[in-house]
Amino acid sequence: MSTATFSRLTSLLDQQQARYRVVEHPTAGKSEEVAKIRGTQLGQGAKALVCHVKGNGIKQHVLAILPADQQADLGALAQGVGGTRASLASPVEVDQLTDCVFGAIPPFSFHPDLLLVADPLLFERFDELAFNAGTLERSLILNAGDYQRIAQPRLVNFIRMA
Q1: Which of 33, 63, 106, 131 is spaced 20 to 30 Å from 94 by Cα?
Q2: Where does the pLDDT of residue 2 fall: very low under 50, low under 70, confident under 90, or very high at 90 and above?
Q3: Secondary structure of residue 143 in the 3-state scheme
Q4: Are 133 and 107 in contact (CB under 8 A)?
Q5: CA distances in angstroms from 132 to 17, 21, 54, 55, 140, listed in the order given
Q6: Where is the YbaK/aminoacyl-tRNA synthetase-associated domain (predicted)?
């Protein structure tokens, strides 16, 4: 399951000549812990949320990517995609759409029914993004510009304002 996602991801990045490195590490439960292990800032983490957006005739699964030091505003996410409400997907839906467990989902969509969306703040503070790559024991640290060029996420402002 997770090794297939990792292989698919690294093949894509190699094919697209992305600048990245692989970091092997013990499983960490929280974004703060894994950032320390990786040697990155918390805000460099690309947090991936699988959501279900509905309303206005929309029924869309969304892979929403935001910096790990921020919280998502699901209402703003829904509006940004054209819906009226959003909720987190069930573990079964996450497995079906990403082939990954919670916490190991990379910020790439390999499923035709999963729309990739990123908050613009993800690209404004750091030159590199860090994320688990299909497994909780393996991360990628990827050039942010290369990520945006290759993944081509739809940009939607959906960070919760404090």
Answers
A1: 33
A2: low
A3: strand
A4: no
A5: 20, 12, 28, 31, 6
A6: 25-149
